[in-house]
């Protein structure tokens, strides 16, 4: 369609908008988790889905930190592909946790969707509007 034929010229802008929006939502969801250390152990118990049952508080802190700092780095485009790998792992564990605790696809869908977003980001890279310019 001729109306949209020139939008391909703005791929980097589109990627920046996606990075910024998704990154902001990661910070929005991650800040309350990192701000409440008493919840870290419960969050870290999701690693039990991978049969890792030691140090749940540590894993909960790592998950909260990954979500929060990963969101910031997503916005900046800093270490973007590495952040994408961490986020993919985070959402894989979250998805498995939903299924292993009796949840259905509806409960796991948000984590699965974001996992796919970060898989796409892994392939695309941050675009030219990033700190790393990678």
From TrEMBL:
<keyword id="KW-0812">Transmembrane</keyword>
<dbReference type="InterPro" id="IPR051907">
    <property type="entry name" value="DoxX-like_oxidoreductase"/>
</dbReference>
<dbReference type="Pfam" id="PF07681">
    <property type="entry name" value="DoxX"/>
</dbReference>
<feature type="transmembrane region" description="Helical">
    <location>
        <begin position="52"/>
        <end position="73"/>
    </location>
</feature>
<keyword id="KW-1003">Cell membrane</keyword>
<keyword id="KW-0472">Membrane</keyword>
<protein>
    <submittedName>
        <fullName>DoxX family protein</fullName>
    </submittedName>
</protein>
<feature type="transmembrane region" description="Helical">
    <location>
        <begin position="12"/>
        <end position="32"/>
    </location>
</feature>
<dbReference type="GO" id="GO:0005886">
    <property type="term" value="C:plasma membrane"/>
</dbReference>
<comment type="similarity">
    <text>Belongs to the DoxX family.</text>
</comment>
<feature type="transmembrane region" description="Helical">
    <location>
        <begin position="78"/>
        <end position="99"/>
    </location>
</feature>
<dbReference type="InterPro" id="IPR032808">
    <property type="entry name" value="DoxX"/>
</dbReference>
<keyword id="KW-1133">Transmembrane helix</keyword>
<feature type="transmembrane region" description="Helical">
    <location>
        <begin position="111"/>
        <end position="131"/>
    </location>
</feature>
């Amino acid at each position: 369609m001729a109306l949209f034929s020139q939008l391909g010229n703005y791929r980097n802008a589109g990627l920046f908008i996606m990075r910024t929006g998704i990154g902001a939502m990661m910070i929005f969801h991650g800040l309350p988790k990192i701000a409440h250390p008493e919840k870290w152990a419960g969050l870290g118990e999701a690693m039990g889905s991978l049969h890792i049952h030691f140090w749940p508080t540590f894993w909960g802190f790592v998950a909260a930190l990954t979500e929060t700092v990963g969101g910031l780095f997503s916005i900046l485009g800093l270490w973007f592909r590495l952040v994408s790998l961490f986020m993919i792992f985070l959402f894989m564990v979250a998805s498995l946790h939903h299924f292993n605790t009796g949840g259905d696809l509806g409960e796991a869908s948000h984590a699965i969707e974001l996992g796919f977003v970060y898989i796409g980001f892994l392939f695309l890279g941050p675009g030219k509007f990033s700190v790393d310019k990678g």
